[in-house]
Amino acid sequence: MKNQLVAKILYEIADLLEIKEVEFKPRAYKRAAMAVEALGDDIEDYAKYKNLDDIPGVGESIAKKIKEIIDTGKCLEHERLKKEIPIDFEALLSVEGLGPKTVKLLYKKLLIRNLSDLEKAASAGKIAELEGFGEKSQQDILDGITLAKSKGERMLLDEATAFADDITGKLKELSHITQIEAVGSLRRMKETVGDIDIIAVTRNAKAVAEAARQLDNVQKVYSAGPTKIMLKLRDGPDVDIRIFGEKSYGAALLYFTGSKQHNISLREIAIRKKWKLNEYGIFSGKKQIAGKSEQEVYRKLGLDYMAPELREDRGEIEAARTGNLPRLVEQDEIKGDLHVHTTASDGVSSLQEMVDAAKQLGYAYIGISDHYGSLAIANSMDSKRLAIQHEAIDKINRQSTGIHIFKGAEVNINKNGTLDIEPEVLKKLDYAIISIHSSFRLSQAEQTKRVIRALNHDKARILGHLSARLLFKREPVELDYEAVFKAAKAGNVALEINSFPNRLDLNDSHAKAAKGHGCSFAIDTDSHNAEHLRLMRFGVGTARRGWIETSSVINTWPLKKVADFLG
Ligand code: DGT
Ligand code: CA
Ligand code: CA
Ligand code: ZN
Predict the structure, then answer these.
(1) Predicted confidence (pLDDT) at residue 490 exceeds the cutoff of 80
(2) What is the pTM for the complete model shown?
(3) Which domains does the chain have, with CATH numbers?
(4) Gap between the Cα atoms of 236 and 215, Å rounded
């Protein structure tokens, strides 16, 4: 899908025009970018079968540019603006606290174009001297640069998944490829991915190498032999493709899925049995005694099958040996999504659009949880707007459309642990998700006290994105997690596993620790447009990495039971 690429370029045109102080146009581009982001269909299909200017917010001139991006991967107007104003938006906006407005200001005042300009200016104390900045914001920027740089060559799981799906999808069309699958950290659903690893079975390795060379987004082919092809994608990761025979497919999957530590422990078991285990199979002397499937290899080693998400050598092998593996939650057991924003706060899709999209996913319920309170940046609701939303929800619920809508809200936890909502308004909700959106840097003791106090509010039923981290952007808050999990269990508050790819919060190890305290979980998406509802798979993957079982996930429960839980 080229939707993301189109939206990204439109957003950048908007930002560049804003720097040039062009009137009106920036808003138009931004609106169009948001609409493309929220579009349910593949934009390429849309261009083929419908009129691009039927998309709300897209006029004739922007439609032309979208067509140009679909056809050529870029837009001349955008290239021209970039030459005129050579700012590396992507890098600068990846620094926590820098928005388009600040980037614009820093360019105008200090001619900052990229991370290195920014770092120089901040280190020299020039940013603190600007009006509206100070020592603290300068230090925040320096910290932000360190984090943005830590991204290095790794990327978020959803980005890596999109790249991998694209390649495996195209190669799958070759008739001589009988099996192909992405492995490595991607298959283990790790929160960030270094390179993409792919295993294929084919009769014609030469043709695979040729096809890989021809992929339209390949930037460079490092090497292409009969068993291994290594390449780099344009604006993307390195990809290792390895080719195996049918007989070794399972062993190869197992080996290249990793983790390395999991592999090492398996090999030790094989050695104890006087066998050899490698990417071609289990061998007794020269004879292959297993290797066609992963199941076969595990069985031979006396182990139950372990889902890829478990393979981190965190006790899964012992559990597999003794028949004690967890009954992991699965994507198709999810019956609803309880963290969803709409146009009533900072979402892009309307209530009705969100409900329709949830229905299409086969959900039995959805919880609408727009921001409430004083958080200006998120266009938070007040009691008046909430009342209007509740009327709209009542109306849809009365139509008995086969999906139930819960009335929720995402409520900020104030610095002192009170909630940013009037008590009489809180009472009108079915439930509140309580989240940290400010005061990220309290001491561990203060932060822990704050969260535990907030847990005690009636209606606080889900604790949202607990660590508040943003991958490559914001460090997690300091917290006595064990104490919070204990309090959540005592108050019967579910812990969110936020599926948004730059959050994945709780992360895998926190989820596993919380499970140890008997906590329950809500895996949800924090959707801001209808497409985001599909991000659920990344939250489910994270939950599975945390050994989370179906029974403890509240949004696998039937409607009646969730309604009881929410109260
Ligand atoms: P990444 O790419 O950094 O996100 O992480 P992985 O896990 O995808 O690591 P990668 O791409 O270096 O290797 C893919 C898999 O291949 C890895 O998970 C396990 C296996 N592997 C790689 N190197 C070794 C090794 O030296 N020993 C063993 N036993 N397995 C290895
Ligand atoms: Ca890898
Ligand atoms: Ca690799
Ligand atoms: Zn939030």
Answers:
(1) yes
(2) 0.86
(3) 3-149 (1.10.150.110), 156-301 (3.30.460.10), 331-566 (3.20.20.140)
(4) 13
